From TrEMBL, chains A, B:
Signal peptide: none
Feature: DNA-binding region: 36-55
Organism: Tistrella bauzanensis
Pfam family, one: TetR_N
Keyword vocabulary terms for this entry: DNA-binding, Transcription, Transcription regulation
InterPro entries linked: Homeodomain-like_sf, HTH_TetR, Tet_transcr_reg_TetR-rel_C_sf, TetR_C
Protein name per the record: TetR family transcriptional regulator
PROSITE patterns cross-referenced by the UniProt entry: HTH_TETR_2
Domain HTH tetR-type positions: 13-73
Ribonucleoprotein found in the keyword field: no
């Protein structure tokens, strides 16, 4: 909604909310292959042209709904240390992404192609969560890499294994990748932030 | 073809070749959204049920054709050193995968879901090429990581950026990832091979 520069709760926001809800209801009821834009429009009480104008096609709409679902509903648990915070967060992340619903989310997002604004929101959720963990660690005086280093070193291999196979994404794999990321010289340095 | 355990050039192999060729012709002529299984069957001179029986659905067929296209037609260039071999190979890999046809291949492969045999062939092509570079380096007496380490450290972040955005996959990015991967603390050790 914010991306439209519109006031939250405005007409555009209400349209998006009801269309997203219609997609979730219909896919739950009929499964994704059974859903069409005219069905979504009827369920949401808008015209099909409203949906085509705003989302382009069904793939774009499904991808937006999937990105919404990727938005975490809690901030990362504070275990008191960087490594244990990352172990816990990534174990849950890998579990969610490799689950049936997680794979469907990834499939919907990728099927629509890399639309920059959507991908920025999608990756933004992960970066925000990691920065939260890294800020806490930095405040405790721990040395921390840039979130970008954790994306390349941990997030990317986890998603590669989920999308292309080639190995489990269990706690052992995640913690090995986390320790590699934290041990490495030559990582992108984190911007210093004034609190 | 080999995966079917059939003699190359056998009936099954000929069916696969003509169906794949029909897909390539039709997608080139009409674009992927325009192609249907009955059209492919007509173009290939087989019955639609032959295609449904063997590939399940259009997504599975398009994914198989895409995996075929990922098969490299040359072995990696020998520049005389591990780092320069990897720099050259990954620069070409990133260029190909981020091109329009490369993105279409990835999209087709991912749309069909992680069918283990298909994914094994797909990732196998990359592993074979990397092992070829690593074997040459080991034969020169250079220290080499496991191909799996290069998949996690270099291939995965390249594909993450291509699929989810979040940065260029230029030569600078590839060579930075390669150098991180070769600084080997905590990397999986490569199995020693008797020549």
């Amino acid at each position: 909604m914010a991306k439209d520069g519109l006031r939250p709760g405005g007409r555009s926001a209400r349209v998006q909310a009801s269309v997203h809800q219609a997609v979730r209801r219909l896919t739950a009821r009929l499964g994704r292959p059974g859903v069409t834009i005219p069905m979504v429009a009827a369920e949401a009480g808008v015209t099909p042209s409203t949906i085509y104008r705003r989302w382009g096609d069904l793939a774009g709409l499904l991808a937006d709904v999937a990105v919404e679902r990727m938005q975490p509903d809690t901030m990362p648990v504070d275990t008191g240390g960087l490594v244990t915070d990352l172990d816990l967060w990534f174990e849950q992340y890998a579990e969610e992404m490799s689950s049936g619903p997680g794979r469907d989310m990834l499939k919907d997002i990728l099927a629509a192609g890399p639309e920059p604004d959507r991908m920025a929101r999608c990756c933004g959720y992960t970066t925000t969560q990691l920065d939260h963990i890294l800020d806490r660690a930095a405040a405790r005086g721990e040395a921390v890499p840039a979130a970008a280093a954790l994306i390349d070193d941990v997030v990317a291999p986890i998603l590669y294994r989920i999308l292309f196979g080639g190995g489990p994404v269990d706690a052992a794999f995640c913690s090995a990748r986390i320790r590699l990321a934290l041990a490495r010289d030559g990582q992108p340095q984190r911007q210093h932030r004034t609190p």
